[in-house]
Design a protein that fits this description.
By secondary structure, the protein is mostly helical. It has helices spanning about 5-110, 115-135. It is about 90% helix and about 0% strand.
Length: about 140
């Protein structure tokens, strides 16, 4: 903090002994020590509060950065999930349309009457008979 060497401290001690005298020097030294201790304690308190504030600011900044990263990640995942959902929806729609077409084709096949070979021969003979009668009458 201060660049004070042993020689400077020795000079200050000799001057204090000459100025204050041997009777008041111990009391003055105690008082000076008290104020130095109090100043140091105050300095350490201010230093600790400043470091705490800096740590709090760093923590806040770190949390904001983490929240921003998390938000970006969530947005990316949301977009990918939406794309997947759209692809699945499209696939389901295609499958449903295919099954609908197959079902409609099967329904049309069921709606057409089945031809019975016995009935078709009987119908053809009855149909040919009236025609042959009308031909013979002419």
């Amino acid at each position: 903090m201060f660049d004070i060497g042993l020689s400077e401290i020795l000079i200050v001690a000799i001057v204090a002994l000459v100025v204050l005298g041997p009777e008041r020097l111990p009391k003055a030294a105690r008082l000076a020590g008290y104020w130095v201790r109090k100043a140091r304690a105050q300095w350490y308190t201010v230093k600790a509060e400043l470091e705490s504030e800096m740590a709090d600011e760093e923590l806040k900044r770190s949390l904001k950065d983490s929240m921003a990263d998390l938000q970006q990640t969530l947005n990316a995942h949301q977009e990918s999930l939406q794309q997947e959902m759209q692809a699945l929806d499209k696939d389901i729609q295609q499958t449903l349309n295919q099954q609908k077409e197959e079902l409609q084709h099967e329904m049309r096949a069921l709606d057409t009457p089945l031809e019975n070979p016995i009935e078709t021969k009987a119908e053809s003979t009855t149909e040919s008979t009236p025609d042959s009668e009308s031909a013979s009458r002419s």
